[in-house]
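This section describes the prediction task in plain terms. A model, or a person checking by hand, is given the sequence of a single protein chain and must write out its three-dimensional structure as a string of tokens. No templates, partner chains or ligands are provided. The sample shown here is typical of the held-out split.
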Amino acid sequence: MSSVFVDTSALYALLVAEDREHEKAGAILTALDPNRSFLVTSSFVILETVALLQSRIGVPAVRGFQEAIFPVLDIVWVDARLYSRAASALLAATKRDVSLTDWSSFEVMRERGIRAAFAFDEHFAQQGFELLVAPS
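The expected answer:
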């Protein structure tokens, strides 16, 4: 079974019909074989997703996330060690447009040997990871 890292950009797109990537996100999720793909994310991605849903869409969207998507995710809880590595990477890179959440995601992926990201954020590709695409 192979693991796929799931980013905030994909989670948000799945849940928000008005998101420009909504249809692509649904197609990618549908194409993933639940018997062959293990969906991994981090506690930082969960926090970021909930914050975006709550502020932009409302609490009912958070409830939908909690009920429909949260249960199928394998969550890596960011601890002090992982936070330290992600913060060090952020400070070393000095890039304003790559968040601490992104750096922690990259660290989780490297640590777990995950090569594929379900994301609509090009920073994953810039870090050498494969972005999943909707089937044609």
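For orientation: Strands lie at 2-6, 37-42, 74-76, 116-118, 130-131.
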